[in-house]
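Course exercise 7: structure representation. Students receive a sequence record and must write out the corresponding structure in token form. The form below is the worked example handed out in class, using Putative nucleotidyltransferase with HDIG domain (183 residues). Read each field label carefully; the graders check that inputs and outputs are placed in the correct fields and that the protein name is recorded exactly as given.

STUDENT ID: A-19
EXERCISE PROTEIN: Putative nucleotidyltransferase with HDIG domain
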Amino acid sequence: MVEFDEAFVLSESLLAEPLPDRWRHVQAVASEASRLGGLDGVDAEDLRVAAILHDIGYAPAIAHERFHPLDGARFLAREGCSDRVVALVARHSCAVVEAQLRQVVGVEYYVDEVSPTRDALWYCDATTGPQGQRLTADERWAEIRHRYGAGNVVTAFLDQAEPELRAAVDRTLSRMSTAGIPI
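STUDENT ANSWER:
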């Protein structure tokens, strides 16, 4: 099992130099995940590990399929990460929808656990901008649509996945409210 400190070093070694903005994003997602670790039903350690590793598949050294959730999951499985963390990375932020649009096979074989931990990971990613800035989910999705533009597969993915993404974000916001964690 890979623990957070080891996951941090691994992620940093693969992302910091070639993709500094992605590295800032990943660090901010992990920071938010640390803040949410006490939510009811959330596995704090798996959330933190998945958060620091969720975009590792963008690293040029391991980007073979050119679909980061799948590249990351396959790499992490070889590195000895738990099946749960591997699946959280493979399925993060409703990746199965984008995989279908891109006709990439493999993401669907990983378990989508539909849990508070999964929802919290999706929330953290949906509220962190491309350079690590805090955004609302609506601001983040607008930024993505603007960056990719109409007609891009990422925009089409977001159009299809937004209801499921929004539901995960809303469930996490509700858990945060119940726990007294500021938004």
